[in-house]
Design a protein that fits this description.
This protein is α/β, with parallel strands linked by helices and 365 residues long. 27% of the residues lie in helices and 17% in strands. The strands form five sheets. Strands 9-10-11-16-13-14 form a six-stranded antiparallel beta sheet, with helices on one face. It has a four-stranded parallel beta sheet with strand order 1-4-5-6, with no helix packed on it. Strand 2 and strand 3 form a beta hairpin. Helix 2 runs parallel beside helix 3 (100-108).
Length: 365
């Protein structure tokens, strides 16, 4: 997958100093919007004005112009075919003329997900009319808020899961993430390891295409600051540890997700749903009956006490054994399919029917 920008070029200097002839192939000022600062209360301004600042300006291309669109379509077709690209991430997608995307996507002929940087579902979701997918910023904000502290709003996270399903065209195609290069590391927001395990489990097991930002699996914490450039630490600082707690968590959950997709042809397209929430807990189910993943998440943190939380609406068969794949402990659902979940130290729990794990090599089965 390749990350591309079509909204703008970059110029090392002020807007008045841009040498348009040096920008290829759009080497004439006629291809660019007249300089203006973005007014985020106006969508026209969002699409037509310039990002950047007086030190590094980002000359904004007229993507609504036929000549510009044609050159871009020819370029992306050549790029994709030359390098056998599988998919594209589109930077600053909300700053591009919406009508541009249909021709560009047809020319590319591959999956595209766009960055629409907003926490408002009613603003983000309509972009699925123009693109296959967008990054799920509304759930990013809800998830980081829920797990950022022991007083985080867990019911709001459960509600946002439902809101995105009802507002977006298809949440299973969205990019699911809780860290990236434009926002603070979760470890900087909350250094608690159990909280980090929960937010990462949510990323991997909620709807959509999971995106794990390099260093998240090493619990990077943006030392020295909360955002760019402090959140862009080199991965080799960790010596690529394969024993770090979040690395091993990612490996276990990715193995389960891969197995769930293999075992259930409808797993990837099944719409994840919250089946329980309270002030400290969210439980969710993804997958068809008999091969569903039930995830129980907590924001109590590593100081959280041990207790039992009963989770119903799981869809598990009555009295069926289910495996908690992170500890490999087996519990038995009750007559209604509910599971008595032993919670401790604020850690996530992830359940899957034991019979459906046969041959997976997960937990030795």
């Amino acid at each position: 997958m390749v990350d591309i920008v079509v909204n703008h070029f970059g110029w090392d200097g002020s807007s008045s100093s841009v040498n348009y002839s040096s920008l290829s192939p759009f080497n004439d000022q006629k291809y660019y919007h007249t300089f203006c600062n973005v007014d985020y209360s106006s969508q026209d301004s969002v699409e037509d004005c310039w990002l950047g600042d007086s030190n590094v300006e980002l000359p904004d291309l007229k993507t609504e112009d036929t000549a510009v669109a044609k050159m871009y379509n020819n370029w992306i077709n050549s790029l994709v075919n030359s390098y056998n690209i599988d998919g594209l991430r589109i930077d600053t997608a909300k700053h591009v003329d919406k009508a541009f995307w249909a021709g560009f996507e047809a020319a590319a002929g591959v999956f595209m997900t766009g960055e629409v940087f907003s926490g408002d579902p009613t603003y983000v979701c309509p972009y699925q009319t123009y693109l296959d997918s967008v990054l799920n910023y509304p759930l990013y904000y809800a998830a980081t808020s829920a797990f950022q502290s022991t007083s985080g709003d867990m019911p709001a996270l459960a509600n946002m899961i439902s809101t995105m399903k009802s507002t977006c065209k298809d949440t299973t195609l969205l990019g699911s993430f809780t860290e990236n290069h434009d926002v603070a590391r979760f470890g900087q927001l909350n250094g608690d390891l159990s909280a980090a395990e929960n937010v990462l489990a949510f990323t991997l097991l909620a709807d959509g295409i999971p995106i794990v930002y390099a260093g998240q699996e090493q619990h990077y914490q943006s030392l020295g600051g909360s955002g760019d450039p402090y959140n862009r630490e080199a991965t080799w600082y960790s010596s690529y540890s394969t024993t770090a707690p979040l690395y091993t968590l990612t490996a276990k959950l990715n193995a389960l997700r891969n197995w769930a997709v293999k075992a259930d042809a409808g797993y990837a397209t099944y719409r994840n749903r919250a089946i329980y929430s309270d002030t400290t807990t969210v439980a969710m189910r993804k997958g068809n009956a008999g091969k569903q993943v039930v995830t129980v998440l907590s924001n109590k943190g590593s100081a959280g006490a041990s207790y039992t939380q009963t989770i119903g609406n799981t869809g598990f068969l009555a009295n069926a054994p289910v495996v908690e794949v992170l500890t490999c402990a087996t519990v038995t659902a009750d007559g209604s399919g509910a599971v008595a979940v032993p919670m401790a130290s604020g850690l996530p729990r992830v359940y899957y029917p034991k019979v459906a794990l046969a041959g997976s090599r997960i937990c030795g089965l």
